[in-house]
Amino acid sequence: MNIPYGRQHITQEDIDAVIKTLTSDFLTQGPKVQEFEEKFARYVNATYAVAVANGTAALHLCTLALGVNEKSKVISTPITFAASSNCVRYCGGTVEFADVDPTTILLDINKVKKLLQSSPKGTYDGIVAVDFGGYPLDLESFRKLADEYNLWIIEDACHAPGGYFTDSQGKKQLCGNGTFADLAIFSFHPVKHIACGEGGMITTNDKKLYEKLLLLRTHGITKNPAQLKENHGGWYYEMVDLGFNYRLTDMQCALGISQLTRADAGLQKRQAIAQKYDQAFRGSAAQIIIPPSGISHAYHLYIVQVKNRKALYDVLREKGIFAQVHYAPVHTMPYYQQLGYKKGSMPVAESYYEKCLSLPMYPTLTEQEQDFVIKSVLENI
Ligand SMILES: Cc1ncc(COP(=O)(O)O)c(C=O)c1O
Asked: Between vectors from CA 121 to CA 115 and to CA 126, what angle results, nearest 5°?
């Protein structure tokens, strides 16, 4: 019996939905795309959503739409998947990492503040903030800071669909709802909450950015008569910007729509699994992250921090438990090292990396499997 750290959940309804699309008129650019966008926007309580090929394409389109270029400087977190900062590099911009908070492992607002205060105003353009592991970042505080320095915010919410934090007015703020971030992005890779095989979504409340994203998703091509310089007839289109083919197919959107109907149930299961892990590990040598009340953690990952991480990883593997490490800090990757980023510069992130291990966390994890994981961890730390 092998137990991975994450796994998709595909039902007969999902399969039927995809097959129905396969036999319809549209495999791509058909009605399922808009339906998925509208339903997903509603799910995260945002005004607009743009479906794209994957989460990385979503990030790239965001930096393009926000005008990132060779002169741009953008702040991000070292504890995330590399795509969160790579999107700045795609546009030639510079990434400045700020260390994480040791209790949440999220971008530390005080470190960001220090960075901003130590440079003249106008040095930085924006922040890529990540709801790492599914822990919703307090974007209200980040927005206040960003407004002081005239910065945009991209929320990388790949790990957190359905998660929320409670703002200073007592209002629930769903991840990706566009209240505080200019743009938010999601991934539908199979280990994520909603699986499309590959897939991504951008959400926003900004109409101008939304229209720009639609254009950039499809080569920068428009057929909208109001935007055309000339008009030669019904076939005519113009390429008005340098865009990409970052579209998501109707087949994938059909799967996404079907998966979305079970998103709340899946999230509740993840939270129940986390509660059981919390109870088992509280007071043990495994350090755990427990969010305060008012925060609904989306638990893409359940992370423990242990002194003997490598030994625990190996012993779990021998037992068929495929735990994972999220993440080796981005600034320590060879690509970033050769750009001049230094090991030792982000002590909290680097120390976290030495200890972290993501345990199995997915809605179909059974009670017996979880009991086996808990027992195996407790016996080996
Ligand atoms: C935090 C984060 N951002 C971005 C991405 C990129 O998403 P995708 O794999 O869909 O390109 C991922 C995927 O692993 C991720 O975990």
From this structure: 65
What's the token pair of residue 185? 């992005």
What tens digit of pLDDT does each residue of 138-190 get? 999 999 999 999 999 999 999 999 999 999 999 999 999 999 999 999 999 99
Q: How far apart are CA 73 and CA 151, in angstroms?
A: 10
Say if ligand 1 is within 6 A of residue 186 CB: no
- 328: helix, strand or coil: coil
The one-character DSSP state at 226 is G
Atom of ligand 1 nearest to the CA of 84: 3
pLDDT at 1: 75
Q: Is the CB of 130 under 6 A from ligand 1?
A: yes
Tokens standing for 229?
């310089």
Q: 262, 356 in Cβ contact below 8 A?
A: no
Task: Give DSSP secondary structure letters for 79-105.
Answer: SS-THHHHHHHHTT-EEEE-PBPTTT-
pTM: 0.98
